[in-house]
Amino acid sequence: MRLTRRDIMAILGTGAVAATGLGGLSGPARAAGKITVLNWQGYGTDEAWALEIFKKETGIEVVSDYFNSEAEMLTKLRTNPGVYDVVLVNCARTRQAVSEGLLDPIDFAAFPNAKGLSPQLKDNPFIVVDGKTYGVAWVWGMNALAYREGGAVPESYAALADPAFAGKVGLYDDAVTAIAVAALMTGQDMNDPKDLEAIKTQLKALKPNVKTIWSSEDQWNKAFSAGEFDLSIYWSGASVRSKRNFSLPVVFDVPKEGAIGWFDTLAIPATSENKDDAAKFINYMIDPVFYVEWATKIGAPASANEAAMEKLPADDLSRTVHDPKFLASMTLMAPMEDDKRQAFNDLWQEVKAFYAS
Questions:
Q1: Residue 182 near residue 156 (C-beta atoms within 8 A)
Q2: Quick check: helix, strand or coil at residue 117?
Q3: Strand runs (DSSP E) across 277-328, as ranges?
Q4: What is the rounded distance in angstroms from the CA atom of residue 134 to the CA atom of residue 81?
Q5: What's the whole-model pTM score?
Q6: Band of residue 223 on the pLDDT scale cut at 50, 70, 90
Q7: What's the rounded Cα separation, in Å, for the pair 81 and 265?
């Protein structure tokens, strides 16, 4: 069943929510409750139409708060006990949050829609500590290459250094991603590179080609539209939105070295006072009905729920970009100690200063 925005609003008026799959949430609406969700702004959990449906069905109001970095997310959890009921945690940050006692383990009996989750994500070792899972896998994506339609097809990250792209390359302003790309270019483990000097040399060698270092999807869209670059590191989900929503001639491609993968979870803070309501909301967020509407009308990363991906039209761009084969072939960003993260940041800052010199 594919819903339009008009269908969704009609559902709100007719009470036919059960037919959409939301009926499994909780039965009849109960006395009003309220939960607070901590996430990136504009990242699915604050879609107004979805929150209206959820409140109509459950009586639960969702209040959103935001963070601008994963470090800020952790700080907000530490310094505001009892404030948050659901939090988005990247798989590379889960162990750190668990080590500080910030998250509750998940009891999947409270999440009927979890039956459709990809086993590679649902039970991923990055979110399992001492046999307990600390977050419900929600969405996944890849960082790889995007290039202008009609241009040469890059088969390797080595294309970033190809003189054919002199002054026509865009890089993502993220130390972990930059080091990962250079590690793959130099044949190293992207999560544990042993030769940082080789990585620094590789990144500096890109200087003649680098035109833009972008940090947001909006910045990427504007620079690509202006013709500033033809080849870039980019996010898989964002490439879908760039093409679908802005008609940009972009093609997302995974080169032979593979994609840099990640997935996000929705977790319940240990200090939440509304854990049952939080579980209902997370179950709704992994509902295929919610996902199909979000993905086809607004644009979303790939769902961790295989059943949701299968409900997308066969020719849907997000479905084709996020081919399930990449779940097996991509390398996930691993949890990282603070000293290694700092070393990566220091290296990246040095490289950027070299580009600017």
A1: no
A2: strand
A3: 302-303
A4: 18
A5: 0.83
A6: very high
A7: 20
